[in-house]
C-alpha cells in the first residue's frame, strides 16, 4: 500500500471513531445524561445537595460558644467552623448580593431595589446554564415568585435573586415548599428565615430553635447522603470588625474541624461554584479562594 493510501485510510478510521463518539454522547444526552457531569475543583467535594441558610447581624462571639445557640454549636462540634469568616460591608443587603453574585451590584443600603435590575452572572444563573438545579426558600414570602418589598416579617432586602433578570422568579419559593423528601432538593438552594427567625428582630435563641426545628432533620440526613448544610450570617453587629459565624455540616465535612484561614462571602461563593463543577465564577468569586482544610477525605 502506498504512503498516500495509508494516510487516507488512517484518516478515515479516525473520522469514524470521532463520529461514533459524537453519536454516543448525543444518545447519552438524549437519555437525560450529561456530556459534562459536575466535577469539583481539586480539594473541594461535590455534594449532591447544598442548603445555605443566612442569619442576621450577629458577631462570631455572640453565637459560637454562646449558651443561646446550643443547636448551632452542636452543628459546629459535629461539623466544621470557620473562625475567621468575614462579611463584606454594612448594612445587610449588599452582603446578600455579594454572597450570591460576587458583587454588591452597586447596592449600598437596605432600600427596595427594582426587580431584575441586573443581568450580571450569579450563582443561580451559572447553575442553570450548567444544567444544574437551583431554588430559594423564603420564609413568609407571600407566594412563590412574589416580588413584593415586604409583607409582615418578610423582607425582600434579604433576597438578592429578585435583583437579577437571568434568574426566574419562579425559583423563589415559600419556605412551606421546602421538600420533606430531601433527595428532591435542588443541587443548591438558599433558605432565608423571616425577620424574627433570622435573629434580626428576635433573639439568637429564637433563631437557633428555628434552625433545629426546621432544618435539623435535613442536617441529620445530609450526614449520610453526601449533602451539606451551610449556616452563615450577612454581617456582624457592627462591633466586631464584621467577623461572623460560618458553620458547615454534612457528610463531606470532617467532624470537629476548624479553619482559621481568613474567608469572606466571595470565598464561600467560589466554594459553592467549584463544588458544583462550574467553570465560570461570578464577580469577585473569580479571584477568591476555595475553603479548604475542613473536608473529609
Strand content: 15-25%
Q: What is the topology, as strand order, of the major beta sheet?
A: 7-4-8-1-9-11-2-12
Query: Ranges with pLDDT <50 over ≥5 residues?
Result: 1-36
**Which oligomeric form is depicted?**
single chain
The CATH architecture designation of the largest domain is: 3-Layer(aba) Sandwich
Report the principal-axis shape: globular
Strand/helix succession: HEHHEEHHEEEEEHEEEEEH
Total domain count: 2
Q: Write down how many β-strands occur, each being a DSSP E stretch of 2 or more residues.
A: 13
Short description:
With 297 residues, the chain is an alpha/beta fold. The protein has 2 domains: 1-35; 39-287, Alkaline Phosphatase, subunit A, CATH 3.40.720.10. Helix content is 30%, strand content 16%.
Provide keyphrases for this structure.
globular, 3-stranded mixed sheet, 297 residues, 13 strands, 7 helices, 8-stranded mixed sheet, disordered N terminus, Alkaline Phosphatase, subunit A
What does this structure look like?
- This protein is of the alpha/beta class.
- The protein has 2 domains: 1-35; 39-287, 3-Layer(aba) Sandwich (Alkaline Phosphatase, subunit A).
- Helices cover 30% and strands 16% of the residues.
- The protein contains 7 helices and 13 strands.
- The chain has an 8-stranded mixed sheet with strand order 7-4-8-1-9-11-2-12. Strands 10-3-13 form a 3-stranded mixed sheet.
- Strand 5 and strand 6 (154-155) form a beta hairpin.
- Helix 3 (70-78) runs parallel beside helix 6 and helix 4 (92-101) runs parallel beside helix 7 (265-275).
- The chain is globular and about 45 Å long.
- The termini are far apart.
- Residues 1-36 have low confidence and may be disordered.
